[in-house]
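note to self — DONT lose this again. spent like an hour looking for the file last time. sequence + predicted structure for the chain T wanted, 138 res
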Amino acid sequence: MTQEEKETFLAGVHVGVLSLPRADGGAPLTAPLWYDYEPGGALWFIVGRDSRKAALLSEGGRVSLCAQQEAPPYKYVSVEGVVTSIATSRGEIEPMAIRYLGEEMGKRYAEGSDDAQNVTVRMQPDRWLAVDYGKVTL
């Protein structure tokens, strides 16, 4: 994939799989989540303030996220980067929920959420890996 194709794909609606290193050297924590990205910008996602993900993110360092297309032709984009900010969520739950659930269900989902119980995490992708099996000739 070209860089533009990678960024366009990542900006699409996919469930991302986040991987977080552990300071104790154990296997990384890997978990699916909703994310958002606009080409050229930072990738962001929301996690529970008291979650294991939030605890590992507070240790700093690099994280990675992989998004994939689950129907043929398969493709994926994986990004790695440094977390640039972790802050109390302030109104980001609704747009994220609408992105994944649509207008009506997204608003209902957001009504039942408490921003104070979540943090918004931003990471700047600086390493990209990708494969588009639709471009592979057999």
